[in-house]
């Protein structure tokens, strides 16, 4: 089974029907880039153009799955895709795949997706990515699993950061968020340790995480707490 098929099957099995999901191959010849999108990659290398086109193709496939119009998705000044009004979404890629998830904003306030190679995090990145509390937790895990679990912390933060950025517009470093996993490392909570824009300290973003054997897929969702009564 190809990496695209593996990742698509994993994502489809873990997401509800309100969320469109599609996976494409960034190594294939260019998919269509709409004229409104082309400016983002005018001077890009061929590999980057293929990656960009594959991401937009995945996004439109995901939009079509939930009955949305297949509109252009230009990049903003921050290079993030500009989703249509009433739509939330996220795009991620590695060397083998591009994945997009899309939903209406009645589903959540923001979503974030990340895909990583299922390899141990490099030791020299551990202090940059993981807070002291996270490093302490890693020390309680089997030594041969610590590097892989550190990569999962990294992936959880990448997906959660996309969620918070869609709401706050704030760029954060990795220590701005603390990740806690459930017992079997299939779900997580990412908590802001200080405020970010409209999001107060303690804001939690939840998500799910899984693997194909060679890739890690992480999906995060954020919903504003609603007033009771």
From TrEMBL:
Catalytic reactions of this protein: apo-[aryl-carrier protein] + CoA = holo-[aryl-carrier protein] + adenosine 3',5'-bisphosphate + H(+); apo-[peptidyl-carrier protein] + CoA = holo-[peptidyl-carrier protein] + adenosine 3',5'-bisphosphate + H(+)
MF terms in GO: holo-[acyl-carrier-protein] synthase activity; magnesium ion binding
Recorded metabolic or biological pathway in which this protein acts: Siderophore biosynthesis; enterobactin biosynthesis
Gene Ontology cellular component list: enterobactin synthetase complex; plasma membrane
4'-phosphopantetheinyl transferase N-terminal domain location: 36-103
Task performed by this protein: Involved in the biosynthesis of the siderophore enterobactin (enterochelin), which is a macrocyclic trimeric lactone of N-(2,3-dihydroxybenzoyl)-serine. The serine trilactone serves as a scaffolding for the three catechol functionalities that provide hexadentate coordination for the tightly ligated iron(2+) atoms.
The protein's assembly and partners: EntB, EntD, EntE, and EntF form a multienzyme complex called enterobactin synthase.
UniProt-recorded name of the protein: Enterobactin synthase component D
